[in-house]
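Practice set, problem 2.
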Amino acid sequence: MKSLSQEIKKQKTKLIKKAKENGLYENFGQNEINMLVDNYIELYNYSIDMNQKRRLIESFNEWCMTYTG
């Protein structure tokens, strides 16, 4: 769980820098979200730990959708 939180923080920093350099664009952050899902989510595992990871990624997704720079 800690490594996922650290990875999300790292991706946010990267995206903020990218937005400052290139501006915002449609589907901002979707590649990063897909990478997190691929690396941290087991599709058919609905344990408490996995659901917490899903919530963290969903929260990051919301942040990407509402980020205005």
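Problem 2, part (b): a different protein.
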Amino acid sequence: MRVSSGKASSTAFVAPADEAVLLEALAEAGDALTSALVAHDLDAITAATRAAEVLCERLDATVVDPDAPRPSRDEFAVISERLAATARRNAILLETAWLTDAAILRLLAAAALEQDDTAGPYQTPAASPAPAGWLDRSA
């Protein structure tokens, strides 16, 4: 079904059921990544990502015997939907993490603005060209 350039000659034929098992394992790796993202566990994020990469490499190197019986379309549809849902969920979690990180950086930058020490404790600092706490959203 899928053949990577230069790998087909060294890859044995596998049964279509094995391909379904690999896809199911990929969905489980996506679920593990979700759990790791929610727990903010960097080691688990790295492990789940690496497991998914290995499974993708194995799927990419898979050559399915065209004469073997095929699993039903329903089986592949269920796995495909599961993979799509996991990908969407993880994308939202990652985007939320990036937005949170950017907000924290903006707060830290606002807190680090230099104050005029000669103004004294009861005088307001001089106006700056940009409002305090403002950073370009692309930062």
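Answer key, part (b): Residues 36 and 43 are 8 Å apart (CA to CA). The radius of gyration is 25 Å.
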